[in-house]
Design a protein that fits this description.
The protein has about 250 residues and is of the alpha/beta class. It has one domain (about 5-250): Rossmann fold. Helices cover about 35% and strands about 20% of the residues. It has helices spanning about 5-10, 30-50, 65-75, 90-100, 110-115, 165-175, 190-205, 215-225, 235-240; strands at about 20-25, 30, 55-60, 80-85, 105, 125, 135, 150-155, 160, 185, 210, 230-235, 250. The strands form two sheets. Strands 7-6-5-3-4-8-9 form a seven-stranded mixed sheet. A six-stranded mixed sheet has the order 2-1-11-10-12-13, sandwiched between helices. Helix 5 links the parallel strand 5 and strand 6 (about 125).
Amino acid sequence: MSSWSECVLGLAEVRGRRPAITEAARRGVLTYDRLGGMVTRAALGISRRGLRPGDRVVVNVSPGSYLPVAVHTVAAAGGVVVLVPVTLHGADLRARLTRSTARMMITDSKTSIADAADSRLRQIFTFGLEVGATPFIDLLGDGESGFAQNGGLAGENDMVQPGEEVLAGLRAYAERAPLSGEDVVLVSVTDPYVLCRAYDLALSVGAHVVAAPAATPVDCLLLAEEFRVTAAVVPAEVSAAFGDLRAPRLLPPF
C-alpha cells in the first residue's frame, strides 16, 4: 500500500522541471523534481537528527511552497504533523506549542522561535537563517529516504489521523473534485488544514498550483487570467467575485 507522501509526491521527480507551485507574490517557482528531492533528502536528514516514527513535529509555516515541503518531510520520515497556524501569536501560540508535546518544529517565523522557550521543543528547523534555529537546508545532506514511511496528521483537537486515513480522505475528496496534470489550480485560502489538502490533491496528479494566500478578489481574478487558471480553492468572498465565469471551476469545500 502506498504511503501518504508516496501518493502525493511519488512521481514528483519523474515530472521533472514542470512547475509544482508558483508563489504569486514573489513569482518564485518550485519544480516537481526539486520538491520531490527536497522532501526525500530532508526526511532522511530529520531522521538522522532523532525523529522516530510516531514522533510529533510542529509545522508552523506560512502558506506557500514551503508548507508541503515541511509537511511531507515529516510524514515521509514517519512523523506526525502538528499544523500550527502562523497567525497564532503570544500566549495563544505558546499554549499551542506546549500542548503539542512535540520536540521538533519546522517554521519560518521568528516569533515562533522566541515563543518556543517554554515548550518541549528542543530542535527547531527554519527556512532561512535565525538565531536559535537550524537552517532547514542543513537537513538536505547526501542520500534520500524515499516515501516508505507513513506519517500522520494531528487534528486541531490533537487526535492523530494515521497516514492511511489521511490518504483515504484525499482519495474520497479527489472523487468529488477530480483534477488532472493539465490543471492550473489557484489556492488563496490560509487555513493550514485546508491548504494541506488542497496542495496534496493538486500535487498528487501533477497539476500546477498558483499559491496566493489571502489575495484579494481582484488579485485572484487577475491571477486567474494571467496563469489561465482552470480550478480554484478560494474563500467565499473570492468565489462570489468569480460569479458566473465558466473558468476556473470552484472546487467543493474540503
